[in-house]
């Protein structure tokens, strides 16, 4: 078995004081992908920067206090790469990938966007550049006999089942028709990836992975499913379990996102 977890930590320094360290110490994951770290390595406590039993790799954003992704792996990777070859996003703290035996795994933090602003334009530029990269990554991996798993906060709810209040969000970033159509391309023949959580839970509302801190969104389970694990075909077929690690109570949350975990069988290592 091989277990991979992705979670947007919403600021790792804060999360580390609210339960992240305890969660990491207890997890059975072989790989953990983090997003929205919002810190450079030197700003993190040593036990967070170099957690016992893990090889940790960090890709902070050049813009201080923003974005930032990380990969934690039990086994030392054969290679680690930052960015996806586009200058604008090379140092944006939004993409980091590592090669493990038979598998390339990546941590992604896709821009969140806001309709009518430069943030949305940035998101659109990122999407336009990232899909061709995903296709090329899949093709290169296939030529090497490898699978790919891109994990992270994609900041798009794909279908109506992926957010509670979808009717009220049809004109909001994260559920725009053009964003959803782009994600369909990722999960269609063009991209060649599979949303492993949805594949195992085809009829379920959610399971949601993000809830606003405002109001009673968490208590009412009025959330969004935007934290996704996208796998190439051979790997997707090996996913035997996928679930959201939803906190038992609002007070036990250490991020506004919950970890999303998938278990695969038949992987090397």
TrEMBL record:
UniProt-annotated site: Transition state stabilizer, residues: 155
Active site: 109, 153, 257
Keywords on record: Hydrolase, Magnesium, Manganese, Metal-binding
Domain Endonuclease/exonuclease/phosphatase, residue spans: 6-257
Record-marked site positions (Important for catalytic activity): 227
Any single biological process term in GO: DNA repair
Cofactor: binding comment: Probably binds two magnesium or manganese ions per subunit.
Annotated site (Interaction with DNA substrate): 257
MF terms in GO: double-stranded DNA 3'-5' DNA exonuclease activity; metal ion binding
InterPro entries for the chain: AP_endonuc_1 (IPR004808), Endo/exonu/phosph_ase_sf (IPR036691), Endo/exonuclease/phosphatase (IPR005135), ExoIII-like (IPR037493)
Ligand binding (Mg(2+)): 8, 36, 153, 155, 256-257
Pfam family, one: Exo_endo_phos
Required cofactor names: Mg(2+); Mn(2+)
Similarity comment: Belongs to the DNA repair enzymes AP/ExoA family.
Name listed for the protein in its UniProt record: Exodeoxyribonuclease III
Species for this entry: Streptomyces xiamenensis
């Amino acid at each position: 078995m091989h277990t991979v977890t992705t979670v947007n930590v919403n600021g790792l320094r804060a999360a580390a004081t609210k339960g992240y360290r305890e969660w990491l110490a207890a997890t059975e994951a072989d790989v953990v992908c983090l997003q929205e770290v919002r810190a450079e390595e030197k700003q993190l406590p040593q036990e967070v920067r170099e957690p016992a039993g893990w090889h940790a790799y960090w890709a902070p954003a050049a813009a201080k206090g923003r974005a930032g992704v990380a990969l934690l792996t039990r086994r030392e990777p054969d290679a680690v790469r930052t960015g996806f070859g586009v200058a604008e996003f090379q140092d944006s703290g939004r993409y980091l990938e590592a090669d493990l035996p038979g598998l390339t795994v990546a941590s992604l933090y896709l821009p969140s966007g806001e309709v009518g602003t430069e943030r949305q334009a940035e998101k659109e530029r990122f999407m336009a550049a990232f899909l061709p990269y995903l296709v090329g990554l899949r093709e290169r991996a296939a030529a090497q006999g490898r699978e790919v798993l891109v994990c992270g906060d994609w900041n798009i709810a794909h279908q109506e089942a992926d957010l509670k209040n979808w009717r009220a969000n049809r004109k909001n970033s994260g559920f725009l028709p053009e964003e959803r159509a782009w994600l369909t391309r990722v999960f269609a023949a063009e991209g060649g990836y599979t949303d492993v959580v949805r594949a195992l839970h085809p009829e379920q509302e959610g399971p949601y992975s993000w809830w606003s801190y405002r109001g009673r969104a968490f208590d009412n389970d009025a959330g969004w499913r935007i934290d996704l694990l996208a796998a190439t075909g051979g790997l997707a077929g090996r996913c035997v379990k996928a679930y959201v690690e939803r906190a038992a109570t609002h007070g036990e949350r250490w991020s506004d996102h919950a970890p999303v975990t998938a278990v695969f069988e038949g992987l090397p290592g």
